[in-house]
């Protein structure tokens, strides 16, 4: 977490970035600038492949969850990242667009 000092917060998890401030920090305009997990909150990109431009769209959301993975609006020792992928190439058997979502939970300093 950005608020950690030498990777160790003084107050667990109270020293972590507040829920309303998740996302890139000042000066972190590109993915290559990101230096912690929650910088990806609100990030999106379009990926081109040999199949054409704008083939895949990725959108990301990061938020706090409790030990049962229930979303929270206060700092927790768990953060969850959801990555959503959409593409005209991702269709189901009925030829309807299908959206894929992947998630990952990161436990910072288990209490």
Structure notes:
It is a single chain. It is elongated, with a radius of gyration of 17 Å. Strand 1 and strand 2 (52-65) form a beta hairpin. The chain has strands spanning 44-49, 52-65, 71-72, 78-86, 100-107. With 111 residues, it is an all-beta fold.
Topology record:
Blueprint: E1 44-49, E2 52-65, E3 71-72, E4 78-86, E5 100-107
Antiparallel strand pairs: 1-2, 2-3, 2-4, 4-5
Keywords:
mainly beta, elongated, five-stranded antiparallel sheet, 0% helix, 111 residues
In short:
With 111 residues, this protein is mainly β.
Mind summarizing the main beta sheet? 5 strands, antiparallel
User: How much helix is in the residues?
Assistant: under 10%
Q: Please compute the radius of gyration using only Cα atoms.
A: 17 Å
The counted number of beta strands is: 5
Relative strand content: 35-45%
Helix/strand class: mainly beta
Order of helix and strand elements from N to C terminus: EEEEE
């Amino acid at each position: 977490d950005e608020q950690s000092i030498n990777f160790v917060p003084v107050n667990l998890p109270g020293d972590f970035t507040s829920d309303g401030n998740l996302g890139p920090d000042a000066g972190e305009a590109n993915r290559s600038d990101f230096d912690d997990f929650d910088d990806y909150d609100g990030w999106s990109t379009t990926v081109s492949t040999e199949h054409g431009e704008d083939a895949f769209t990725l959108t990301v959301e990061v938020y706090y969850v409790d030990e049962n993975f229930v979303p929270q609006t206060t700092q927790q020792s768990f953060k969850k990242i959801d990555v959503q992928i959409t593409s005209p190439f991702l269709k189901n058997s009925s030829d309807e667009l299908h959206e894929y979502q992947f998630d990952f939970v990161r436990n910072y300093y288990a209490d």
